[in-house]
Amino acid sequence: MLQSAKADPVGHIPSGLFIVAVSDPSTHVIDGYLASWVQQVSFNPLVISLAIKPGRPAYDLIKSGKNFAVNIVGEHDKTFLKHFWKGYDPLNNPFQEIPHVIGENGGVILSGAKSSLECKLMSSISPGDHEVVFAEVLSSYSMNDEARPMVHIRKSGASY
Fold first, then answer.
1. Please, what is the Cα angle at 67 between 62 and 69, to 5 degrees?
2. How many Å apart are CA 78 and CA 60, to the nearest integer?
């Protein structure tokens, strides 16, 4: 079977949209990326998994052990997504414009998100071109209870 024929139905797997964000207090750098591959994998402890391509914004900070936040995008406010669809120039960091706070565990919490999870890296594995990170949820915040989480369906499993 051709790769494209296999990939099209894989793209039909629904996922959410998330902004994964991390800060480095020593340099005052905040970095992040748009993620769609995030999933809960454990109840006790509360653990999630997320996929990140090495070299993406935030990758080095997360891998160095900095706590990070997974901001769940809601249908109520998508304005901050425009900064992350195609990536951004590090010299034009979108976090200068996006309202946010630093959470109790150091994660970057976006004010416009539906909710946010502050996490710490537990382990990771590299099964292909993305690394799967397993992270313990340290704290969580619900900013917009009535908002529905945004659902994303790709045209193909071969691209974002």
1. 90
2. 26
DSSP characters over 106-126:
S-EEETTSSEEEEEEEEEEE-
Instruction: Using the predicted structure, report yes or no on whether residue 87 has a pLDDT greater than 80.
Output: no
Question: pLDDT tens-digit profile of 93-135?
Answer: 889 889 999 999 999 999 999 999 999 999 999 999 999 999 9
> 103 in helix, strand or coil?
coil
CA distances, 109 to each of 86, 101, 112, 113, 133 (Å): 21, 5, 9, 8, 19
* Domain 15-37+57-118+137-151 falls under CATH 3.40.190.10: no
**pLDDT score of 3 more than 80:** no
For residues 63 and 123, give the distance between their C-alpha atoms in angstroms, rounded to a whole number. 9
Distance of CA 140 to the CA centre of its chain: 14
Task: Compute the distance between CA of residue 21 and CA of residue 1 in angstroms, rounded to an integer.
Answer: 38
Element (H, E) at 16: strand 15-16
